[in-house]
């Protein structure tokens, strides 16, 4: 059985982001990493593979630099590495079409991904791909288990957690999961070095991308945090309480 | 904030992708598991056993050795591993140096096929810890005059004598011990439970507190005949181990230096005195700029030596230069970083004082700073100056 994991490379959560000309300057990003929610999806995929056997296919859509992330995935156990060159595509629906076509090509029974990417945070990939491949979709999962041909997942509910079981082709979008992504080891790294990344284009996938009706107008850094305020002595209690209530909205 | 290693000349871009992946693996582990726990380990004076397990699981022990389930990485990768470990703590790097270069290496190079098959896989996985017994109470820089001796008793060897300052001694499953058999230095593998062998821990260190240091005592210690390393006689045995460990230290010291630089830079940027960050004053900038200069030179030295180790085109004097220089600058950088931190520099909230105290040991072990000067001096002049008698 093939298990597919969709991975996105994003600026590391600790990397400094600079904006130039109203856009994030990708060249100034000091460190690129696998999006954290995708890491939980990958770990879950690896654990399922250990149970069910089969092949773990890691797919990403992005520029050349994203191949490095696939090699990192191979170092922890991904078997097939697929890189779809995105030719500057940023429209989520386009990315979903490319990913869906790649998922079909590798004939997976389940697809795992993060609930949202740490850079754009749009959260549309999982449900979007599910729609295109006509699969069930469970979002915000923290765990996926397999027994007797069925997948069951844990996700939050109104009153705690719920267990959702699905049959057939399914997409699971991960929240912060139960298991952190395992650390690679030297053996895995050496194996990863030998693994080829399969590079494909929209043409190879037979996907024709119509012109996008999404335009990104501008990106802005978050507003700077105002400086902290310091109060000393009991005479300020009323003032502090009022600020906490009316400005910080915490009490 | 995540650690961003100072790499002014982008020396790490010369590493292979595999070497960079190994670097990131070890760096992440040090950030997540070592740095949050190191001060407690130092206060308690223990080497956390989880670290042994993790090093084995990552598969970095005995990094450059090939076969027998050893990692088979490049010497450059081994250097990078030492650097990343020592950014955490010199005691952690000492553990890995001793295990890989001083205990596994002699078995790998000079051991019998049976010895290699028996010991190396379990040492590479971290299941068995090894130690290296060369130094004696009365023979440090001058190990050739050691008095620990072995006697051939027909069906076994009998060891008598004592070793001192032995890293990992009390936690080791086996010790590679250098002793004289009929006046000739030979290597012997002594196991933890061999009769007549004990390894009491040395307490009270102000340096390398998270590393175990022990005496090894042999009182009519009886070991089977098949425990002698067949492949080497004389000082060449221990010295070839030391060459590899010293090489690793030349990278490792840079890890400490980079940690100190990192902390000093952050501190100088945020500490306000006389209304401005101290980083804005020329005297402080001079210190930071000197640190960057020395670290960058040290990185080029270590990288180039790594390439020489990998191509086989090196002489021991090359290693002496790098060990001596990089430990020397790391120690001085730690001292200057301590100065920049002011009083805060003595607290264990910052890594400075710990690195500084650690580096005092690193300066002394594996050939003291001046012994390396003498090695290079002999290379330049052809005249040995270790002893008055030639
Ligand atoms: C924490 C720690 C861990 C260690 N781990 C190990 C281990 O695992 N295995 C092991 O075998 N050993 C180990 N050692 C021992 C270490 O290798 C020795 O301490 C080192 O070789 C120096 O020997 P010494 O301490 O006896 O100093 P000495 O040799 O007595 O030197 C004292 C001083 O005299 C100087 N000196 C000596 N001879 C000369 C000369 N001819 N000319 C000029 N100056 C000279 C030295 O440079 C030094 O400054 C460890 C030491 C420490 C501190």
Description:
The complex is a heterodimer of chains A (251) and B (390). Chain A is of the alpha/beta class. Chain A is 27% helix and 28% strand. Chain A has six helices and 14 strands. A seven-stranded parallel β-sheet of chain A has the order 9-13-8-1-6-7-14, with helices on both faces. A three-stranded antiparallel β-sheet of chain A has the order 10-11-12. Chain A has a two-stranded antiparallel sheet with strand order 2-5. In chain A, helix 2 packs across helix 5 and helix 3 packs across helix 4. The longest helix of chain A has 17 residues, at 36-52. Chain A is globular and about 70 Å long. Chain B folds into three domains: 11-124, Acyl-CoA dehydrogenase/oxidase, N-terminal domain (Butyryl-Coa Dehydrogenase, subunit A, domain 1, Orthogonal Bundle), CATH 1.10.540.10; 130-227, Butyryl-CoA Dehydrogenase, subunit A, domain 2 (Beta Barrel); 236-381, Butyryl-CoA Dehydrogenase, subunit A, domain 3. The mean pLDDT of chain B is 97. Helix content of chain B is 51%, strand content 14%. Chain A binds chain B through residues 12, 14-15, 30-31, 68, 71-72, 75, 183-187, 189-190, 192-193, and chain B through 1-2, 4, 17-18, 21-22, 25, 28-29, 57-60, 63, 71-73. The complex binds flavin-adenine dinucleotide (FAD). Flavin-adenine dinucleotide (FAD) is lined by residues 98, 132-135, 140-141, 165-167, 208, 213, 361, 364-365, 368, 370-371, 374, 386 of chain B.
Total of DSSP H or I helical runs spanning 4+ residues of chain B: 11
CATH superfamily of the largest domain in chain B: Butyryl-CoA Dehydrogenase, subunit A, domain 3
The multimeric state of the shown protein is heterodimer
What's the SSE pattern of chain B?
HHHHHHEEEEEEEHEEHHHH
Bound small molecules, by name, code or SMILES, are: flavin-adenine dinucleotide
Largest sheet of chain A: 7 strands, parallel
Overall outline of chain A: globular
Radius of gyration of chain A: 21 Å
What is the fold-level CATH name, i.e. the topology of chain A? Rossmann fold
- Integer average pLDDT of chain B: 97
CATH architect. name of the largest domain in chain B: Up-down Bundle
* Number of E-state strands of chain B: 9
Order of strands across the main sheet of chain A: 9-13-8-1-6-7-14
Number of strands of chain A: 14
Mean pLDDT of chain A: 92
The level-1 CATH class of chain A? Alpha Beta
**Estimated radius of gyration of chain B:** 21 Å
